[in-house]
Design a protein that fits this description.
By secondary structure, this protein is mainly α. The protein has 2 domains: 148 residues; 355 residues, no CATH class. It contains 21 helices and 7 strands. Strands 5-6-7 form a 3-stranded antiparallel beta sheet. A two-stranded antiparallel ribbon has the order 1-2. Strands 3-4 form a two-stranded antiparallel sheet. A hairpin with a 2-residue loop joins β5 and β6. The chain is globular, with a radius of gyration of 28 Å. It starts with 8 loop residues before the first helix and ends in an 11-residue tail after the last helix. 32% of the residues are buried.
Length: 605
């Protein structure tokens, strides 16, 4: 593939197909996981057992192999990762990374083992000693260990730069740390495999198997079509509803670019160059080779394409309601059409202020602007909440689920659908959640960027002071960008899903009144204020510009601090002892108590 004269046209086609498969596959798999998350939240709110009944019995040796192989493989790679010659500074950096991973693997395994012992009991004295402490105690000890390792690594790096530590000692320290890391990862996998009992093991995976069971069930269920329905339009409805939710992701970037350096100047893709340790790319450099944008299509009218394609989703709901020959379906289709058309106006105007600031309709310059200055949530917070409300109304979820209100019109526009056609409507709803979250992440939360992460690595600079700088491999930066984009989108999707179980449903007249009399005037006012502010800032001197840039850097520091604190808070939340108290508060509570109480019965989702 790297031979001279190799045609790279087919390689670009293959990479484009891979990008399409990545986006479509992630969206469809997310819809299944989102169904599980929705059910789990429903179970938590209603205090009942969640979707955890589907089970697959797997022989124990397969489970043992799954647990053992990754640890041994990763351990071997970590131990053999210093095959190439490194400078003393690079060796110390590798040692610091290995030590941080050692601390992480240690406290993570202790947390899991302590939690397992508390649920299933100890098998030996070692597990009894580990289980005598709460899981969060190991987590806090791990945090302290990370801080200590970071301080030690900085101190050793300074000694290396000052020439106080010889190159052979630096390389030996890095090698020892890598070997210890490899042994610890392999040992953790082997010990986890030893805890698996012999015989068939029931795998539930916290209820995620329900998504697979539901998909299989929908494939084989009867495809019911009403007698007087329009068979063609009845079949096209769910397709048209799912298609726009997937197609709008074509213009959303999930990374900056993947640059294949053409070192040999022979017009070929140099895949090996991506793995070079010193393969860092200059921050503002142009790719000298083949640049593969991590975006399916880069259109000059990206945001307009989003509005054009997403507006066709109303056609699927309207067609499904009309073609079903059912009055409830027709009412649901009419509600969906009027609601979606109404909120598209407010949705478009809510982003006009954002477009004035970014001065572009393309998504990639928008993300670059946020990485250079500040995330969109800081410069247009009102626009974000307006777009969030409008996108939820477009998605027809609680509290905007009037087109499918069960208490009024049975199930709305898809009441006459069954089997896989119903599954397409349901998958489309959850794919729209992820699509809306991805667009909001791109416009308001920095897209694929992270605070102080640039094409050449990490550069923590505030004002004229550089606090930390670390050069990174181009492939490593690209992977982090992709993980950041999908991680932000999934997290925001989880927040949107949580709204369903925290907000009551509006009346239909309230929904329409909110869109036309509240959201639309607020969007127009935000646009006017933003236009005046942009003109005033452009007319101001360089002093104001430098001050705003400093404020933007401080906002990045605030986001970076929040990203460090948030995982700690989540782990503390999940590892704290759970105390649940059941209570009954209603007008009939005293009558139930007088009758001897209500007998609790197990419920399954």
């Amino acid at each position: 593939m790297n031979s001279p004269g190799t045609s790279f046209g087919w390689v670009e086609v293959v990479l484009t197909i891979l990008k399409i498969l990545l986006i479509v596959g992630f969206c469809l798999n997310f819809s299944a996981i989102a169904v599980w998350a929705d059910r789990r939240q429903s179970a938590m709110i209603q205090h009942r057992v969640g979707p955890n009944r589907a089970v697959v019995n797997v022989p124990s040796f397969i489970i043992q192999g799954i647990l053992t192989a990754p640890g041994i493989l990763l351990g071997a790679l970590a131990a053999l990762g210093l095959g190439q010659a490194l400078t003393p500074q690079a060796a110390i950096e590798r040692m610091g990374v290995s030590l941080q991973l050692i601390v992480f693997v240690a406290w993570f395994n202790l947390v899991l083992l302590s939690w397992r012992v508390s649920r299933k009991g100890a098998l030996n004295a070692f597990e009894a000693a580990v289980g005598s402490n709460l899981p969060r105690a190991y987590f806090y000890a791990g945090l302290a260990g990370h801080v200590v390792v970071a301080l030690v690594s900085v101190a050793v790096a300074r000694q290396v730069s000052a020439g106080q530590i010889a190159s052979d000692k630096a390389y030996l320290a890095a090698r020892v740390a890598s070997v210890v890391l490899g042994g610890l990862m392999g040992a953790s996998g082997v010990y986890a495999a030893m805890r698996i009992p012999k015989g068939p093991v029931g795998i539930r995976l916290a209820g995620t198997l329900h998504g697979i069971a539901d998909a299989l069930k929908m494939m084989f269920k009867e495809d019911f079509i009403p007698k007087n329905a329009d068979r063609l339009l009845h079949a096209l409805g769910p397709m048209i509803a799912l298609f726009p939710a997937l197609v709008v992701m074509a213009v959303v970037p999930f990374g900056e670019q993947l640059c294949f350096q053409d070192v040999n100047k022979n017009g070929s893709f140099e895949f090996a160059e991506l793995l070079r340790v010193k393969g860092a790319m200059a921050r503002d450099a142009v790719c000298e080779g083949h640049s593969v944008p991590l975006q399916i299509v880069d259109m000059n009218v990206g945001i307009l394409y989003i509005f054009a394609i997403s507006s066709t989703g109303v056609i699927g709901a309207a067609i499904a309601g009309w073609a079903s020959d059912n009055k409830f379906s027709l009412l649901g289709g009419l509600r969906a059409a009027s609601q979606m058309v109404s909120y598209e106006v407010a949705m478009g105007l809510s982003l006009m202020g954002v477009l004035l600031i970014y001065s572009s309709l393309r998504f990639t310059p928008m993300v670059s602007w946020q990485n250079m200055y500040a995330w969109g949530i800081f410069v247009q917070p009102i626009a974000f909440f307006m777009f969030l409300a409008a996108s939820m109304a477009e998605n027809k979820r609680v509290p905007f689920d009037q087109p499918e209100g069960e208490s009024e019109i049975v199930a709305g526009y898809f009441v006459e659908y069954s089997g896989f056609k119903f599954g397409m409507f349901m998958a489309g709803e959850y794919v729209e959640i992820f699509t809306g979250a991805a667009i909001m992440v791109t416009l308001f939360f920095g897209g694929y960027t992270m605070p102080f992460l640039f094409a050449d690595g990490i550069d923590v600079t505030i004002g004229e002071t550089t606090f930390f700088a670390y050069k990174m491999n181009h492939l490593a930066v690209t992977v982090i960008q992709a993980l950041a984009f999908f991680g932000k989108s999934v997290f925001l999707s989880w927040v949107i899903i949580f709204f369903r179980w925290t907000l009551p449903r509006f009346r239909y007249d309230q929904v329409m009144r909110f869109g036309w009399t509240k959201l639309l005037p607020l969007a127009i006012g935000n646009l006017a204020v933003t236009a005046v502010a942009v003109v005033a800032i452009d007319a101001a001197g360089p002093g104001l510009h430098s001050t705003l840039k400093l404020l933007g850097q401080l906002s990045h520091a605030l986001v970076a601090g929040a990203m460090l604190v948030l995982p700690v808070g989540l782990v503390w939340l999940f590892l704290r002892p759970v105390e649940s108290t059941r209570f009954l508060r209603s007008s009939s509570a005293r009558f139930a108590a007088a009758a001897g109480g209500v007998k609790p019965t197990p419920m399954q989702a």
